[in-house]
Protein 1
Amino acid sequence: MRRTALLSAIFLGVASQAAPVDAAPLTAHDLALVNRITWGASPSAVADIQKRGAEPWLSRQLHPAPTDQLPPEAQAEIDALPVGRMPLAALVVQMDAQNKAANQITDPDQKKAAQQAYNQAFNDLARQAATRSLLRDLYSPEQLKEQMTWFWFNHFSVFQGKRDIRAMVGDYEDQAIRPHALGRFRDLLEATLRHPAMLRYLDNDQNAVGHINENYAREIMELHTLGVGAGYTQKDVQELARILTGVGVDLSPNPPNLKPAYLGLYVREGLFEFNPNRHDFGDKVFLGHTIRGSGFGEVEQALDILARDPATARHVSLQLATYFMGDDPPAPLVARMSDAFRRSDGDIAQVLGVLFHSLEFDASLGHKFKDPAHYAVSAVRLAYDDRVILNTGPIQGWLNRLAEGLYNHETPDGYSMVAAAWDGPGQLATRFEIARQIGSGSAGLFRPDIKGAVDQPAFPQIQNALYFGGLSQTLGAPTRVALSQAASPQDWNTLFLSSPEFMRR
Amino acid sequence: MNRRQILAAVAAAAPSLVAGRLWAAPNTDQRLLLVFLRGGYDAANVVIPTSSDFYYQARPTLHIACPNPEDPNAALTLDADWSLHPALKDSIYPLWQKGQIAFVPFAGPDDMSRSHFETQDTIELGQQLQGPRDYGSGFMSRLYSQLAGARPIAFTDQLPITFRGGAPIPNFGLAGIGKPGVDDRQAKLIENMYRSEDLGASVSQGFAVRDEVYRSISAEMLAANRGAVSAKGFELSARRMGRLMKADYTLGFVDVGGWDTHVNEGAANGYLAGRLGELGRGLAGYADELGPDVWARATVIVVSEFGRTFRENGDRGTDHGHGSVYWVLGGAVKGGRIVGAQAPVTQVGLNQNRDYPVLTDYRSLIGGVVRRAYDLTPARLDQVFPGSAPKDLGLI
């Protein structure tokens, strides 16, 4: 195996310091691989690849086992979050009731207070979802799955600021995206279509016969599946919009009044509904296929057509390769990934397997410029390893400052994955400010988000065994010189987290 | 110095040698700001074809009433056919009355994808539609390369595509600026680490711009502490832009989002009216901060990726369309006019029975404006917009 041959490349000596005695030595390649496949190299992630060996470790990342659980402290923090304890339908209905109750108050001061409380509760739900997401990125052993959850959320992006989506983003990420992050593309596509967050965000809950709204229909083809320029027409957009009529969101517990012929056609699952009263039952011609008016089955047919279109295989493969390798991934590799996509009927783990086992991927290791999310998460992973932070608020704030806040991309195209979007002068200056915050002390990460809570002492330990046994040997001379001039440990951390080497993975 | 004196001075100095290259000395003592309304703003409800019966038929709930001085919700007369949204009454309408803003209806790119992202990229790149795109070459960056001495900046959190390629151009979002924590010694050490890196120039520029922006903003914070009323939202950013463009920068870009009004767009009041009011106050505040002397040499071009469907949809909103209405404003703009070719605003006048056609190509429009503003030679302009003939609409 090629990878085995590379194993002997460089012995970095981490084994003697950080890993069990029988572990394989850490090679430069494996360190770079961990840095790319996970949310950032940390002492414990490196120990894991040494213990298992690179190939079994990669295989485990592609096919996680049920036993790959979060550490108990992190799981306990997630379990304490209200957002995960209530089913989405109950949560949204409760928020809706709180909103209505607030609006009915006649006393202006009381009304204002009630509306503020409602907004606060609303914002909290999205913040809790972000907390859960970040804790998983930081500590989950299923690192690739968490990276893919970010990728797919961004691919099927929704914006928390629209309507009541703040109450929905947590469930959307946890139930629609994450279970399918390494599964089948077709399942993922339908899971997003059946989620109220997506239907709200792209207005399909407003799309009904005689009141066509083509927003979602267009973005499914342009962003989620075929890609722009794949040859579909305005007419295809309109036909897909007709197919999608009646696919919407219903907060009421009762089904609508249906004529007998429609009774068997009504579909309801939580807040999701397919309402035949709102559906256009005429026949459609979509991408050259005639689709007979029949109800929700039309949507299934349309999704089958889209998921199996070669343009979708190409578009999704290109997006995946860009996410993991950087700008302009080599076309032959994307073509091989597209082939795997089509052969496997959209098995995401298989497509990624082709990517990760390619020579092109190996050659790209260490060269991808980190986007803000990877930058911030990798810094905290390196600084605190498996010591679980008590407050993700500072990280959420950093991501917002760097213009890549969770659930915060207003338009449906998601955040850019190319370096030029993130390496401009203003971005870099802000990133160095954040490097200083992370490097100088606990940055509020160990002060629980409760009134009166005190900061627990925690200093970022970047000069750890991983640094001395591996990372230090990846540094160029200018960075070493700058680090040697550090005036204090805080200063050293700030400089290391600002170094060009730490900007890439 | 007025423009004629500047031209004379430039003529006397030309040809001058800048950075080892012979320049035909374009006139760079100008301020140009490109404002991109992302999302496809509903142009037909902002510069409104109030003489068209078809407009009122096509928009049963979204229309704005014909001009009527008694009615605060009525549109404001521009000319016999067109009127302005009432939310712009105190900000943009005074500029119209002073002849400092022109509107160009039926403007945009030929790109008919009706995709936000595709069309935004098309405009920002400013390349020919045929042939492969080069995402490393935006038209504002190419314009900068033709203007010796210009100082470019994007007032955005991310560097926009239009400023990519060529020399690194700083970007700085102006919404949340605080005192820098990285001190000068640390900044110097960080710069040293990047000295031989591709990012080296960007790193140095980032620190330099950070310091300039902070200096400019600390004056405002001081004023606020003395009890001055502070602006909010886009107006706050736009006023900060004005101060920076007055003193430190000459070629700017900013984008404003939130125009994708598929649902409950509102009419004289409501969602779009709110966004417009904020935009108008921002642009007026920008002019105010520049002050009369600099405003006399300043041009602002407002663009958007497309107009929207001429008919309202089933949700009291509008969907993706084609032709838009672009704005050109500035102290030297020959405004108070609706400019460029026009199509009848009737059903048969629509593109694909859906939206406005494009009669004025965005490249020829912007090309015509920058050629006048900077006295660019045809050869230089062809570097900015290759293969596009500038349309001289007499705007400056």
Note: Chain B touches chain A through 56 residues (CB under 8 Å).
Protein 2
Amino acid sequence: MTTIAARPQVEAGIVITIARKELRDAVRNKWFWLYAIAFAGLAGVLTTLALPSARVAGYGAFGRSASSLIALVQLIVPLMGLTLGAQALAGQHERGTIRFLMSHPISRSEAFIGMYLGLVTALSATIAAGFGAAGVVTVMRGGAADAASFARIAILSWILAAAMLGLGMLVSAFTNRSGVASGSALFVWLGLVFLGDLGVMGTALATNLPVNALFFSAVANPVEAFRLATLTSFDGSLDVLGPAGSYAVNRFGGALDALLISVLVIWVVIPVTIAWYRFVRSKDL
Amino acid sequence: MIRIQNLTKRYSGTPVLQDVSLQIDTGESVALWGPNGAGKTTVVLCLLGFLQFDGEIEVFGNDVRRSGKEIRSLIGYVPQQPSFYDDLTVAETLGFSADLRSIDTARAEEVLAIVELEEHRTKSVGALSGGMRQRLGLAVALLPDPPILVLDEPTSNLDAAARQATVNLLEDLRSGDRIMIVTSHHLEEVSMLVDRVVVLDNGMAIDECAPAELGQRLGLRSWLHILVDPEDVPNAIDALAAAGFNANRNGRGVLVDVAPSDKAVAVAAISSAGVIIRDLEVWR
């Protein structure tokens, strides 16, 4: 008589095996290398331009360098996270590999978590390469980098990447066609990076939006939350953002950091949870 | 034992399986037989827990919905068109599968030998032919030496020689307590591999029979084209008519309308009349 022993729905060994394979796949993917090289190259170039010479380098030079990096992260990291995430489930579904994977004694939760962890690791390596390039340039040019602020920006970038990857996987969980998933992810990217910012500004002008509503509208966008959280890293204030920045500093004071980071973390947790639920509970493979 | 009760599957409200019920006992080999679109693959996908469905599927008393992971540990599955990670090599694919099943990689070498893919172990899966992919699928399925083997059209991508080799290999895998489920629409394959045939049509299980009875039950007919010397054609037609067959001249031979299980009878009728058979082929 064949008997079946109950097994935990999530086993670390299985998750690690799947994550390792996803990481290996990402590293073999030419798009991954394109993103990684573009990010590291641009980070190095922007840092070089922001540090004209060792004589003028210093805190201000780090600010310029960091501003350039933040602008770069705002554009590239969401694009990387969203497109990689969008391909994760829909791509496997379209190629039929999800059935190969799921024909093994693994749970859907293990498959989902393994894919997410593998891809987040790949993204982390790309971000590390970009920040590493910027750091190397800063040191070589004699710039006085504020290591703590630099590390903070890198960590916030990593959280943004994790959030965008989850959002991409959420898109992927609702379609079985990788073209649709990638196209939708690009729209989400445009919305977050460009339209969100312009939309908030336009709405504020057209409706005389109160300053607090303007602030919360901006902060609801994870890319904006990232920008605000990183700006405080090397400036310590958000006055540069005008009335909304002043409102934020006056209203939240020391809690502003926690608020902004919480927004980012919420953007990691909610899309990933919904995508996981969709994949585990209701999706035909 | 596998028990399927009132299995129903709908896609956007359209039923592709309707109240399918069947039971497969330990050690039994069963074919799900039917034309394309009959629902054979859907039954298999539900058994593996890939699809949401209505009804019940139990494997050794465990519900597929609640214990899918545990149940899949007992199943080796060969899909109709195996899809692997094309960037991985044959050895890496088996290694990945072995890791997910916590199986020693030495077993991977054994199954590579069984399916005769040892020479291709460093080849990228994307570079394999359809037949080799099918063999790799079989190797992955055999890795855990599973008590349940599910083969979805196992010879669909193979040429005649590879098909025969695969059928021979699968015959060897019928052993002891192993349950084998084969989906197929090839009569010869079914009759060699299984003890029982469940006939599906339009998503419903319409009949069950022994493989030898299948052709007769379904009224299936074949055309046997027998090539003989031109001067022997009249004798061959007479011999076949005497044995109760409907035969006509066709080019260099005779064309005989036969039930699938009567092909050898027709051949014997011609041979016993002293006619030398030069060649023969089966048309459907």
Note: Confidence is low (pLDDT under 50) at residues 54-58 of chain A.
